[in-house]
Amino acid sequence: MPRAMRPPLPAELAVVIPCYNEAANVAPLVAALDSALVGIAWEAVFVDDDSPDGTAAEARRLAAADPRIRAIRRVGRRGLASACIEGMLATSAPFIAVIDGDLQHDEAALPAMLAAVRAGADIAIGSRHVEGGAVGEGLSAIRARVSGLGGWAARLLLPVPVSDPMSGFFLLRREVIEAAAPRLTGRGFKILLDILLSSRRVPKVAEIPYVFRARTAGESKLDALVLLDFAGLLLDKWFGGLLPLRFIGFALVGAVGVLVHLAVLSMAVRTLDFAAAQWVATLVAMTANFWLNNSLTYRSVRLRGRALWRGLVLFYLVCGLGAVANVGISSMLLQEGRAGWPLAGAAGALLTGVWNYAVSSTLVWRAR
């Protein structure tokens, strides 16, 4: 009887694979895992965010002939971190690995990672930055620099030295994710960092070298907006979860909007009077904020089609009322002598930020 057709043993290792539009990589990845994990009872859990290319259907096609393959199709939910959490909590295997569905992580490192955790580590990280590991051709020069900067920022907060905290390739004991799960943000792309920063005790970490490979099929899901998501995760952990992660993201987008406003204003005043230039800059900044929030802060309830344009108009109204409140509160504090202009301005800006966030969350991007 072929090995894939034998009654499967209870899985010792579950390999969780978050996916979006990776149909072409499903079968090659299963074949690679089959070769790499000889002698290990394993299962693969594909967690697909309702890919239009039929990723979940391809995983189910393989599952029909191989009971080690499972597919979770998520409808109305999206995000690599939350997909990983859902997949990890859906298995009873004592050891769980996370690997990307694009074949860039080297599955051949999994046995060494499993051996490290069996030997006492809580988490084994596939690392590109220890001896024997390398970025290879998997990252462009720009993405490599961004990853390096993100790793530096992450290491400032980590309770344990990790050379590659930005890795998306790791293996851990099931009890580690079970304990950390209630504290995870479930946002963004850096689930390993979220787990390391959410653990109640300092985890024992082992780093296993691997070479990051170039993608052979499909397209990368990463873009510049991921940087804001990553910054929001770090700030969330820095503040100990006191501020909602979505509010942090909203505030970061607002900071970008300030830069957009100033840049447009500096160009507009060359041809318009100040009042007109201020209105133009305000409109452009509000539009930029809307698109960034729709793509990043409220990614899970992103507006599309007609709802997108209705949301944009409503966002203009919300921010317009916030601007009126900003001017009113700051002017009142200044005129009544309760605060100097810096404090009055800050109070007005804070009120505006909270107002815009609260109303946007309940009206513009209300949960569906």
Chain-wise SSE layout:
Elements: E1 13-19, H1 23-36, E2 42-48, H2 55-63, E3 69-73, H3 80-89, E4 95-98, H4 110-118, E5 123-127, H5 141-157, E6 170-173, H6 174-180, H7 191-198, E7 205-209, H8 225-238, H9 245-268, H10 274-297, H11 306-335, H12 341-364
Parallel strand pairs: 1-2, 1-4, 2-3, 5-7
Antiparallel strand pairs: 4-6, 5-6
Helix pairs in contact: 1-2, 5-8, 8-9, 8-10, 9-10, 10-11, 11-12
Number of distinct beta strands: 7
State the secondary-structure class: alpha/beta
Order of helices and strands: EHEHEHEHEHEHHEHHHHH
What kind of sheet is the major sheet? Answer: 7 strands, mixed
Spans where pLDDT lies below 50 across 5 or more residues:
none
- Integer count of domains: 2
Molecular shape: elongated
* CATH level-3 fold name of the largest domain: Spore Coat Polysaccharide Biosynthesis Protein SpsA, Chain A
User: From the coordinates shown, what is the CATH architecture of the largest domain?
Assistant: Alpha-Beta Complex
Can you put this structure into words, describing what you see?
This is Dolichol-phosphate mannosyltransferase. Residues 15-178 form the Glycosyltransferase 2-like domain. GO terms for molecular function: dolichyl-phosphate beta-D-mannosyltransferase activity. Keywords: Glycosyltransferase, Membrane, Transferase, Transmembrane, Transmembrane helix. It is a multi-pass membrane protein. The chain is of the alpha/beta class and 368 residues long. The protein folds into two domains: 3-212, Spore Coat Polysaccharide Biosynthesis Protein SpsA, Chain A, CATH 3.90.550; 245-364. Helices cover 52% and strands 10% of the residues. The chain contains twelve helices and seven strands. It has helices at 23-36, 55-63, 80-89, 110-118, 141-157, 174-180, 191-198, 225-238, 245-268, 274-297, 306-335, 341-364; strands at 13-19, 42-48, 69-73, 95-98, 123-127, 170-173, 205-209. It has a seven-stranded mixed β-sheet, with helices on both faces. Strand 2 (42-48), helix 2 and strand 3 (69-73) form a beta-alpha-beta unit. 40% of the residues are buried.
